[in-house]
Design the sequence.
C-alpha cells in the first residue's frame, strides 16, 4: 500500500525555507517509493484562503483530510503559527482530520519559541481529530547548513514513536470505528 502524504506550509513567502524543512522531514522519515505526496504551499492560495465558499480551498482541505500523514509547517510568528495556516485549518469541521497522522513543524530565528509547535499547533491538530505522534518539530532557520542531520534526528524520534504506536495497535481489541457519534 502506498502512503498518501501531504505537506501544508503556512509561510506567506512561496518556496520558503519552512517548505524545505517540511519536505526534508518527509524524505528522511519515510522509505523512498513507499509514498506519494502533495505539497500545498498556502502562499500560492492567498487570493482564496478567505473566500467562503471556495471549491478550490475545499478541494485542498479534502485532499489533506484524505492523507495518511500530513506535515503542517509554519514559520514562528508571535510565538505561534501564521494566520495563513490558521485560516486554512479553520476551514475544517470538528474531527475534520480524523484518521490523519499529523506532524507540526515550526521554523524560527532562535530557540526562544521552540515549544511553539508542541503547545500551539499540536493541540489544534488534535482538536481537529488528527493523531500527533510526539512533540512538534522546531527548526532554527540559521541552521540550514545542518538541515539533513537535524531533520534526521527528528525523523528518528518520530519513527520510534510511530513504531511504538504500531506495536500497541497490533493488540487493540476494539473494532475499527468509522464515525464517532457526537452527543
Sequence:
Amino acid at each position: 500500500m502506498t502512503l498518501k502524504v501531504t505537506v501544508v506550509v503556512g509561510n506567506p513567502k512561496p518556496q520558503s525555507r519552512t517548505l524545505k524543512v517540511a519536505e526534508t522531514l518527509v524524505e528522511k522519515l519515510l522509505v523512498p517509493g513507499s509514498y506519494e505526496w502533495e505539497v500545498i504551499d498556502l502562499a500560492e492560495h492567498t487570493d482564496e484562503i478567505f473566500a467562503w465558499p471556495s471549491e478550490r480551498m475545499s478541494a485542498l482541505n479534502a485532499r489533506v483530510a484524505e492523507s495518511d500523514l500530513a506535515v503542517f509547517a509554519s514559520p514562528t510568528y508571535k510565538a505561534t503559527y501564521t494566520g495563513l495556516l490558521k485560516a486554512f485549518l479553520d476551514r475544517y469541521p470538528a474531527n475534520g482530520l480524523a484518521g490523519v497522522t499529523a506532524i507540526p513543524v515550526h521554523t524560527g530565528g532562535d530557540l526562544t519559541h521552540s515549544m511553539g509547535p508542541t503547545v500551539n499547533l499540536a493541540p489544534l491538530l488534535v482538536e481537529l481529530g488528527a493523531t500527533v505522534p510526539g512533540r512538534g518539530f522546531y527548526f532554527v532557520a540559521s541552521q540550514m547548513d545542518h538541515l539533513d542531520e537535524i531533520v534526521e534526528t527528528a525523523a528518528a524520534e518520530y519513527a520510534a514513536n510511530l513504531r511504538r504506536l504500531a506495536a500497541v495497535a497490533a493488540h487493540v481489541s476494539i473494532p475499527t470505528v468509522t464515525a464517532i457519534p457526537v452527543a
Summary: Helices lie at 17-29, 55-65, 83-89, 116-127, 147-169. The first helix runs from residue 17 to 29. The beta strands are 3-9, 35-41, 69-75, 101-108, 137-140. The radius of gyration is 16 Å.
